[in-house]
Amino acid sequence: MATIETLWAGMITADSGTDSSIVLIINEPSAPADVVQFTFPDTGQSDQEANQANLYEIKEEDFAQRGGRVFDHLKLNLSSIRLAIRGSDQWEVGSFFVWGEARDGLIVPLGLVTGRQSGPGVLSSFILSTDVDEARVSVPIPRVQLGSSLIIIRRMMMLLSTADEDDAGTDDLINLKITTIDGRVVVDHDFKDTLQDDLEQGEANFYFVPVDITFNLPELNDESIVLSIKGKDAWLPDRLFLFGLSDAEDKELVEFVVPVVHLPRWNLGTLSKDPDEGRESVPLPLVDTPAIPPTPTGPIL
Predict the structure, then answer these.
(1) What's the number of domains the chain is made of?
(2) Do both 206 and 172 map to the same domain?
(3) What global pTM score does this model have?
């Protein structure tokens, strides 16, 4: 059993931002009450503003505030994860990803919507409002499975936040490069300007990263993934997470998500091409992802 004691949630708001409170709800089918009912708080980020990203950590004590508790992710089913709203100021979800960290350190993807998903049981629009003439009060988040280290990665997600301190943000481009043990460059991506507040002080970002050549984790080592900056305007991250997806962008639903890099506390220093301010590039450490993950027992199979 993998007992989830910390949750992470990353999201991008689409064109409709909101001042209403957004709630993450997780339940086990046999439990008399929700195991998680967490209202996302006001933070220093641009919380749920149009076209902006957010990144939140939810700890065990946050579960308990409304009678929740730690839980076993293997007991969740297809409808266990929902997003809800507590007001009539409508909110449109662009992308949303929630994952957990177990007591033994296992990183467990739980639910993902990419904003392009469709298909049976998936809403074409993720708009929330308590005004029934506008939208629904809550929507289910499609479940995803923990991908083993052997899963072929066809695209990636990177979620990060910039430190909330003076001069932490940057206007320079950053680059993610992934090279296999045998020398193949499978990812070489510059993060260009988006509608988000890109790499600004105290803000979060949620990016999808193209993969040039498909790969899996045994083809990498701890020197394979390199994050670099292309200028002298120094940048200091606060958190950074990188995940691989088993499905290409044109697929209806993502089946497997593979944890690749998991840095809830950035400890690799400042990035800058100015050697007096930081380093131009840093290797990112790989997550210890199991070759064979735990098998779900519910209908997610």
Answers:
(1) 2
(2) yes
(3) 0.93
